[in-house]
Specification:
Elements: H1 18-25, H2 30-34, H3 42-55, H4 57-60, H5 70-90, H6 95-114, H7 116-143, H8 147-178, H9 180-190, H10 195-215, H11 233-241, H12 243-273, H13 278-320, H14 325-335, H15 341-357, H16 361-364, H17 366-386, H18 395-409, H19 411-430, H20 435-441
Membrane topology: Multi-pass membrane protein
Pfam family, one: AI-2E_transport
Keywords: Membrane, Transmembrane, Transmembrane helix
Amino acid sequence: MLAGGASVSGASVSGASADSASSVSSPASGASTGSVSATGSSTAGASAVRASATGEFRKTSSPSVLSASPADEVEAERQQQARMHAAVQRTRLSITQICLLILTVLAVFYTLRVAAEIVLPMVMAVVTNLMLVAPVRMVTHWFRLPKTIVALLLILTMFGVFGAIAMAVSVPAAGWLASLPQDIAAAQVKLSILRGPMQLIESTNFRVQNLLSVAAGDHAPQAPLAPITAGVAPIGSALLSGTRTFVGQLFTFFIMLFFLLAQGDSLLRRFVEIMPTFNDKRRAVQIASRIERNISVYLATITMMNVLVGVANFIQCWLVGIPNPLLWGVAAFALNYIPIIGPFTGIVLYFFVGLLAFPSVMQALAAPAIYLCIHLLEGETITPMLLARRFTLNPVLVMGSLMFWDWMWGITGAFLSVPMLAVLKIVCDHVDSLTPIGHIIGGPGRHLPAVNMRPVYPPHDHDL
């Protein structure tokens, strides 16, 4: 439902008529095309851009994370190769320009890290808006309600659902934290078999440090670090100290999300109107519509799968006998939003919880083993099948983006890493000078025939 016909300016892009598309993009209307400007009528200009973008979307659009039929995918790949090689040939950066570009990127990243408290909830609101804007439009169209009222009701519903889940898991979480010191002492006894290997690792680490210090010229041996023993009090203090920041960011997120849902289309319409040429207007509409559709499909799919993963882990915790199965089901649901690192953290967490709940290590391995099977079934089979040829990104860059944004913004940054990488690819695919970057970000995709695997150059280049 979210994947089909999602638009960017109030009406469905795919719902524009073919007559409007042909009348706007035909040669006979070239004069009127050039006269579309920011000073013209808002509704007429936006409708013309949407119609033209729809009429020539399949012919002129570059490949993105969403793909159509195999034939269209091959043709799009061929067109992208031609644009990519042309962009590489005409782009020549001097050393000064490269240095300025590097300094600009570093300055942007530094600003994003310093201003994370205000920038992060805004980015999160923009990504959430991409998933919710289609339901808001459908409800507004079906029930003839003002978009402001629909956006407010949707945000209140989200807040109520999150509040109900938090209240449901807060009591078992508080009880688990209260009994954690005694459980840790019991777990240390169960893991006494690992005391010998741990001491061996510690002594090996001490010897390596001594060798490195001798090689560096420092002959003073360093004593091994004493084990750090801390109770639950520091954890509680850290949680309490971060409550104010979290509440402020949550308030910023909901306020920004409300205005994006209520007035986001008008903001995009104004942005399209200031584009100087008709082609620029059409490119802006295509980029916005692809971003909206791709991210909404991705977030809707993984949310559906994460709910199923949470339910499956709730059932397996209840059957295995782990206390508070609802708490660990919600934890599995939340962790599954973070690729690779999230499921791995969930396996370790389930092993630790099983270690506290069962008398032997072998029994404690049952829950994480089932968790791993569920993750392999979902992450390696079902979700790739649902997103096959729709959301293809380079796995190396996905992992690198995950690590970078986790370091930059923490858990929320790790969740946003894949959507932001997809947005970057879509923008690069539609900007000629950035086409090579979009090609690198893209996944393996479909292999072209052998004749098409050669670089495709403009016609005049063959005469060189």
